[in-house]
Amino acid sequence: MRSPKIQSKPVNSDGVTGILKRIIAENGREHAWGYAAAIACLVIIALSTAYTAWIMKSIINEAFANRRADLVGVICLSIFIAFVLRGFASYGQAVILSKIGNNIVARYQQRAYSHLMKLSLGFFNQSRSAHIVAQVGQNISGIRDVMNLTITSTVRDLLTFVALLGVMILQDPLLSIAVFITAPPLLYALRYVSKRLRTATRDAVNVNSHVAGAMQETMQGIAIVKAFTMEGELEAKVSKLVRTAEQRANRIARLSERTAPLTETFAGFVVASVLAYAAYRSIYQNIPPGGFFSFVTALLLAYDPARRLARLQVQMERAVVNARMIYELLDMQPHQRDATDAKPLVVTDARIEFRNVSFAYGDDEVLNSVSFVADGGKTTALVGPSGAGKSTIITLIPRFYDPKAGEILIDGQDIAHVTKQSLREQLAYVSQQPYLFEGSIRDNIRYGRPDATDADVEHAARLAYAHDFIVAQPQGYDTPVGENGVTLSGGQRQRLSIARALVRNAPILLLDEATSALDTESEAAVQKALDEAMTGRTVVVIAHRLSTVVRADKIVVMQQGRVVEEGNHDTLAKRIDGLYARLNNLQRPAASDIY
């Protein structure tokens, strides 16, 4: 089914800063105490690391040069304590940040799922399911990574680096200045890499979603694949996608790892220069080595946090791309919201009326000023050739879509001004293609009414003539149905779908070719059940079989988006030049479909 265009609300386009502000605003307060504890641990890590560099001067000068035996024990004990504190602090911050990160992922998964449930049917008809799953699965971790990178980099790495820089300046200010004069070219190169990585990461996510989509489609249509010997063609298609994904991943790896030769080259140059300068001063100026060893220790210890800080922008760009793609989904508009004056639907007779309803998918008009009445407690059948607009009418009643013009009323209430929840609670729906969810047979029937008892479930199954085949299953009503009921036949799945509609016990029943998947014997049995279920209910049915048409109280004949005839079977069949009569005559020789 075609769908109207769905517009999305643009995500904050301020780059890393804008996304970072939004993530912190949404998650900072929720985990304030946890982040405070993690920050305390990171401060301990930073200070203990700086301490090990600072104490080197005392070790070299006092223990080795001056041979102060009385200080050796104190110095060694302090170093041991520093390492113990750093070990426990590292463990603490890792566990705390992991728990917070896992909670963030879980919360955003729930939020994304809840948001998807609020989007209109048009969004799902336009979007590939695999792309949506990939967008949620691959990108939510980006929000967690942004928060963790922000905390670990700004506290642990930056504080450690600043503390070690302080040690370096205390030991040798001139060398410290010389080290940082050479840093700007490195920062510029890293910024260039991060910009290119941003585009590469988004491309990789999109390609991976296509790979997942192709594999998902193959699994879902495996019977067709094998029947039409499509294995070779699909293998070639997937292989091409996989190679493209591999190339994108390799490009990301090349871009990400370019920081390694840049930082290593820079570090090698700095360390070699410092060693040469220190050796010169020790040889020709007879300066004690303690300060130098402390400086070099601080320099070497500062290398890891400096390297991580240098890679921060690159890593942050990747995380922000993922986070931005999640927000594109969460900001998707419009939700099919209730009107500001929406009230709960009050059903008395369950009379449905279409008044001059028009509808279009984009510029393609499907319904043009359609008007008819489905009387309360009676069955109205929609008949017509393919593309006449019958399925569109069925989707407009539960407000899967809203009409472009006209009104749809239930007991005189415009459904555009009632809440969707109250509207859909009064409807039961059986689609042409039955869909079952993961779980047991009992669970799938009970989805029609969550508070239904086991007795209600079994009663609905009996009405749908499903009870006998259910009890014949290995675990009866508790038998798992497999993915979309793969363990059941098409007719069995349809009867479970009908049972799900019957257990809802709603005053309005919508049937979209509900018996199309059944064989003749099953159709006859289910039709008897439907006849009983239709009693006292308003039924709108898309009718393609004579058995449904002849029982309908009213038949609405449609062609090219318009109502061209109305009446019952006997009246319409006598109109020699009528569309219904022609369709009825076409059916008679085969005694099957009207069209």
Gist?
It is built from 22 helices and 10 strands.
Describe the structure.
With 595 residues, the chain is an alpha/beta fold. It has a domain of 316 residues: ABC transporter type 1, transmembrane domain (ABC transporter transmembrane region fold), CATH 1.20.1560. The strands form two sheets. It has a six-stranded mixed beta sheet with strand order 6-7-8-3-9-10, sandwiched between helices. A four-stranded antiparallel beta sheet has the order 2-1-4-5, with helices on one face. Strand 1 and strand 2 form a beta hairpin. The longest helix is centred in the N-terminal third of the chain and has 50 residues. 35% of the residues are buried. The N terminus and C terminus are likely disordered.
**Shape field:** elongated
Strand order of the largest sheet: 6-7-8-3-9-10
Mean pLDDT, as a whole number? 79
Which homologous superfamily in CATH is the superfamily of the domain at 15-330? Answer: ABC transporter type 1, transmembrane domain
Summarize the topology.
Layout: H1 15-27, H2 32-54, H3 56-65, H4 69-118, H5 121-126, H6 129-171, H7 173-181, H8 183-220, H9 222-227, H10 231-257, H11 259-284, H12 289-330, E1 352-361, E2 364-374, E3 379-383, H13 390-396, E4 405-410, E5 413-414, H14 420-425, E6 427-430, H15 441-446, H16 454-463, H17 467-471, H18 490-504, E7 508-512, H19 520-534, E8 538-542, H20 546-549, E9 554-559, E10 562-567, H21 569-573, H22 579-590
Parallel strand pairs: 3-8, 3-9, 6-7, 7-8
Antiparallel strand pairs: 1-2, 1-4, 4-5, 9-10
